[in-house]
Design brief:
The chain is 43% helix and 19% strand. The protein is α+β, with helices and mostly antiparallel strands. The protein has two domains: 212 residues, Cytochrome Bc1 Complex, Chain A, domain 1 (2-Layer Sandwich), CATH 3.30.830.10; 184 residues, Cytochrome Bc1 Complex, Chain A, domain 1 (2-Layer Sandwich), CATH 3.30.830. The protein has a six-stranded mixed β-sheet with strand order 1-2-6-3-5-4, sandwiched between helices. The chain has a five-stranded mixed β-sheet with strand order 7-11-8-10-9, with helices on both faces. A hairpin with a 5-residue loop joins strand 1 and strand 2. Helix 10 runs antiparallel to helix 11. The radius of gyration is 23 Å and the shape is globular. The termini are far apart.
Length: 440
């Protein structure tokens, strides 16, 4: 393995799985062994729609598409063809606060494919002709999203919940912005944010950890050499993380109600929202995760039992505690007939007030804690799941504590903490509510 500026580990972590290595170029590599005949590599960049300006909204997602259009070393489509011919899978995703690329392959193919994946993310060509072709693909994706009632309702809810924070922006961006973007703007955006120091690589699979690490480091070295050949000037200095300038928005002071009608809707939609702590205050999030499960996750949850099973007021109902970086959202949603909207809103508030005034029973709490903790464990068994888990938490928090101790933290939540969270964050007299009715 060549050494250059990448290979010496600056601050090795304790020799426990997963192992975390900080490379001299600023990239973090997390490696873990899994006794499954596969290897998954996740490359996470700290950039998403929340990092954009309104004038560039959608750039991060558009760039995710363009990453796969080739490099000076790889013609367009060559990487995907090689992955598919070897039975592997590759894909990517963009969110508000990150973009990540993931590859899963057989262990014997990892040393060949991993450097190609890293070349793609660090050295994309972003050719103008390919840019124009992909623009049409992205615009069609936006139109399909706009035709999806659930996605439309979610976007409208985020705009209501976050008038100031960049979570109000759609990840895909608006058509009017995407139509105006230029390839040169994307090249600048890539140089600014797709940098070694903003990159977290997580790799999990059935190879020795030393082999996983060496393969990734060698792939980074090759990608950097390729960059220097094509662009002799060094990469520009890293820009400041724009999210650090934002602070959480205050809790709703009153009921903020938005009512809409849509011709394309078959069922009414109801969304109720409370602003709650995000990853910056993750100690506050565990009780809210448990509370969300108590109220509306699964057939035994309180809202499902009352609204769906007993009173048949909704077609579906769910609750989630969305833990974003700057600020989270406690999100209650339902699909229902329009005439039931006032009654369902009142029932939701009454269930919240019941938690606030009457402690959750030991039996219910034990069941819910087990449900939430086990769901987390079961969702992170495969190498691809674990690579995704490690990459997300380290890229967002700079450590793996939240990934490794989540089940134990959930199992330790007390009834008093659940009640306190409901009292502190879910004011039944101050929240955001969006209702969307079919147009008659």
């Amino acid at each position: 393995m060549q050494t250059s500026t990448l290979s010496p580990v600056l601050t090795p972590q304790p020799a426990v799985a997963p192992q975390i290595h900080q490379l001299a170029n600023g990239t973090t590599v997390i490696a873990d062994r899994a006794a499954v005949p596969a290897v998954s590599l996740n490359a996470w960049f700290q950039v998403g729609s929340a990092w954009e300006t309104d004038a560039l909204n959608g750039m991060a997602h558009f760039l995710e598409h363009m990453i796969f259009k080739g490099t000076p070393r790889l013609p367009e489509g060559a990487f995907e063809q090689q992955v598919e011919s070897l039975g592997g899978t590759v894909n990517a995703a963009t969110s508000q606060e990150y973009t990540h690329f993931y590859l899963t392959t057989a262990p014997q193919d990892f040393a060949h494919l991993a450097p190609l994946q890293l070349d793609l993310v660090l050295n994309p060509t972003i050719a103008p002709d390919a840019f124009e072709r992909e623009r049409a693909v992205v615009l069609e994706e936006i139109r399909r999203a706009d035709d999806n009632p659930g996605r439309r309702t979610y976007q409208q809810a985020m705009e209501l919940c976050f008038p100031s924070l960049p979570y109000r922006r759609p990840v895909l961006g608006p058509v009017t912005v995407i139509e105006q973007l230029q390839a040169t703007q994307m090249q600048t955006f890539h140089r600014s944010w797709y940098r070694p120091e903003t990159l977290t690589i997580s790799v999990v699979g059935d190879l020795p950890i030393e082999t996983l690490l060496d393969t990734v480091v060698e792939g980074l070295h090759q990608a950097e050499q390729q960059h220097q050949q094509e662009q002799p000037q060094p990469r520009p200095l890293a820009q400041a993380n724009p999210l650090k300038a934002f602070t959480p928005e205050p809790s709703f002071a009153t009921v903020v109600r938005h009512e809409k009608t849509e011709t394309r809707l078959q069922q009414s939609r109801l969304v109720m929202m409370w602003r709650v702590p995000g990853l910056r205050a993750r100690e506050e999030t565990y009780a809210l995760d448990v509370l969300a499960a108590i109220l509306g996750q699964g057939r035994l949850s309180r809202l499902f039992q009352e609204l769906r099973e007993e009173r048949q007021l909704v077609y579906g109902v769910g609750v989630s505690n969305m833990t974003q970086g700057i600020q989270g959202v406690f999100f209650v949603s339902a699909q229902l007939a329009a005439e039931h909207l006032p009654m369902v809103e009142q029932c939701i508030l009454e269930q919240i007030q019941q938690v606030q005034t009457t402690s959750v029973t030991a039996e219910e709490l034990a069941r819910i804690r087990t449900q939430v903790a086990n769901r987390f464990v079961f969702a992170n068994e495969r190498p691809s799941d674990r690579a995704n888990l490690y990459g997300y938490y380290y890229s967002q928090l700079g450590n793996l504590a939240a990934a490794l101790d989540y089940p134990d933290r959930i199992r330790a939540v007390t009834a008093e903490e659940v009640q306190s969270a409901a009292q502190r964050y879910l004011n039944p007299e101050a929240y955001g509510i969006l209702t969307v009715r079919p147009e008659t």
